[in-house]
Amino acid sequence: MPDSNAHTPASAQAKRGTGGAGTAAAGAAVRSASSVAAVSSSEARTDERRFRTYTFVVLTLGLVAAFAVSAWLPFKGNADLWWIGLVLTVAFLLAEQLGINVDVRSGISWTISFTEIPLVIGFFVAPFEVVLAAHLVAGIGTLLARKVVGRVLYNAGAFLLEITGAFAVAGLVKQATGAVDMTWVAALAGTLAAPLVSTLLALAAVRVLRRRMRVSTAVRLTGRILVVGFVNASVGLSGYLVIASTPKAWPLVLAVFLGLTALYWAYSDLLREQRDMEALSDVSLMVARSGQQAAARPANRADELVGGVDVREWATIAERIKDQLAAGRVVLRLRLEPKDAMRVVVAGDELPLADPAADDPLLRLPGAHVRHFRITEANPDVRSALIDRGAQEALVVPLRSASQLLGVVEAHDRLSRWRGFGKYDVQLLGTMASHLATSLDNRRLLATLRHDAYHDPLTGHLNRPGFRQVAKEPLRDFANAVVLRIDLDVFSTVSDALGYAWADRMVIAAGRRIRDALGEEVPLARLEGASFAALLVGCAPENAHHAAERLRTELSAPYPVDRLSVEANAMVGYATTSPEDNGDAVDIDGLLQRADVAVRATRGGEEVRGYVPSMGQIFLRRFQLVTQFRQSLEDEQVSVHYQPKITLPNRQVQGVEALVRWVHPEFGRLGPDEFVPAIEAAGLIGVLTSFVLEASLRRARKWLDEGLRISVAVNLSVRNLADEDFPAKVARELERFDVPPELLTFELTESGVMSDPQKALPILRELHSLGIVLAVDDFGTGYSSLAYLRQLPVDQVKIDKSFVLGMGTDLGDLAVVRSIVELGHSLGLTVVAEGVEEDVARDQLEAMGCDVAQGYLISRPLPEDRLEAWLQARTARSPGRHSETVLTLLT
């Protein structure tokens, strides 16, 4: 039966659709394409008026045509054949009930109803009025039984025109051939006229409702409908003629009819499964492709996404579902987070109710199954919800991921004259919802991973990669831009004193202050530790310093930590786009690098510094040192110097401290304070430590061969203490040079150990178990010395030279040194004083009971050849214990 995707309003609340056309004699149904978005209410009212007018015209023409044909072909009744009308009515009803829906393509469907068979037979066995009445009763009864009450008048007019057109064509053919009785040619021609009339009515409805359909498409559909009608009419006509001439042949006719029905059904199922698979694939691909496009968006445009998919893409997805279900409207309600309100996307007719009540019965769906609601069968609550939506029926299915509700899909009012949503529609929507929920959940997971990849987990601000990504677009659009680099210098202090949890709280608080000071729109990133970066676009260079000063003032205010108030200091470096950029695209990495150089320059005293080109030489020099270090080792530009240490009061040479020196071919002589931090930051400290250790053990081995027992001290980095294989490497070197482990001393700073005691302490215990002497360097400058000293497996403490140098003029420094000596001895440790440059300092240390002295008064650090000369010139050799030679410093 020809069928369009139109439906008239069934009630005051029902919304219009597109017009429909149908006839009991037609063997195919057509649904015109209606790929439109939600329309305005004014357009909806206009379309309703147009369709009502069209319905009146169709019904009027149908009545006029019926009276005209009845007058032309007057009824000649026979009381003995009263039952023929009942038989035809039952035949038409059966033909409609056996209807098969075939989805040919998106927006186009056929309904094969076999009504041509009783129609073609009706030409031979009953007059026009009986056939017309039978078809009207069967057609309108089917509509009412399926609760399609909003289109009765239009379809009644269509039924009248279909049957009157069929009998008019048959009568004209009969007159043209001069036949007395109905011939098979006339019956066949009349039967084909019915679907043709139905199709023309459907195409006219498309035009009335201002829907677009190409002429080629309309011609192609008409041709296909006539082919199907011809096949059905031929089967009915052949069966009637065979049975009329040979009554016993009815089983064969029935078999042919059943075979044709089975063929139609098989073809229908095949096409339906194909279309369903295409629809499922399309929806999944739409979500996947839109997710890939979303991944290319900047991190600051995530608000355009729903579950990781562009909001605009959901309209396309909803439209695809609507077309596949032949629905008048599809509504997607999607939720980003459990506490967020649902976002609504509509395809098809306008949705009167965009924001349903919290207790909406259509949205209170347990499980993940499809629910089918009809207004004629629903309870009062569901009926009210359908009326609010302007729908006669609805399929509703939730989108769930585990127990989380991701959204709800609603499909309203199937666009078919003969039937509403069926079991196949329920199955399709359920499967599609399952695929959609899985795709949506995957996209949300990818969106979460992408967010985590570009954001700092502690503060929620951008991280370094996210900052680069977000800054690209503003730097492209604005000529003036400033990158601020902020360092909070209290982070390590708080982590040492109170632990990392409190330090993290300070970082979070600092991030909030920066956000409050700069505003929500400014890209802000936490780079590492307590270091932040911010991008100010449209900021003139002359205003950059003022902005940096204001930010530093905000960050330097005390931080309340529990019941404490922690004083903090912030350093801000900034870099601006400059005329030297020559209008080229500014590189965010370059600006960050300049701001980093500027913030490092603040350590010279100023707390806010702007980048100037001369600062770049510092970074370039540091970069050269790092990249050239390995080659410098091979070229013997790096060497080890040794500074002697003597015991007090007998002034015997107890050992030496190994100190690295670098004579660079371009920069000249470099001290360790200049290049060691750069080497350490580049991860090359292990190479440097191995080099110094090997040189020191080789020197100790030579002394042992000469009968001298002089220990060597090597400085360790915090990165060495993070290497679990380091003790094993040291053990191999000791075995290689055959040096007793007690002649090797490792010096490590207190802050290095305390930066990560959980990693450092096991390494120290393993080194100490080898027999290696461990010394705490720069003792007295940390904040937790006394608390941790008893836990450290150390043998020596070295008093920081700042206290030793100030002993002669500062009573406080003198008291600190005396306290350290007494503390060290009370814990059974050897106390070493470095920075001894005057006789009075040496004498004071000797009077305090300090064990070992080291400093310029004794000797500067010397290369290996000069150290040998110093030992020969400044020491006297005498026999010691175990037949070893002892070196005593000459006065």
From TrEMBL:
SMART domains: EAL, GAF, GGDEF. The keyword Signal does not apply. Pfam families: EAL (PF00563), GAF (PF01590), GGDEF (PF00990). Residues 622-875 form the EAL domain. The keyword GTP-binding does not apply. InterPro entries: Cyclic-di-GMP_PDE-like, EAL_dom, EAL_sf, GAF, GAF-like_dom_sf, GGDEF_dom, Nucleotide_cyclase, Rev_trsase/Diguanyl_cyclase. Residues 1-22 are annotated as: Disordered. The chain crosses the membrane at residues 54-74, 81-100, 120-145, 152-173, 185-209, 221-243, 249-267. Residues 479-613 form the GGDEF domain. Residues 1-11 have a biased composition (Polar residues). This is Bifunctional diguanylate cyclase/phosphodiesterase.
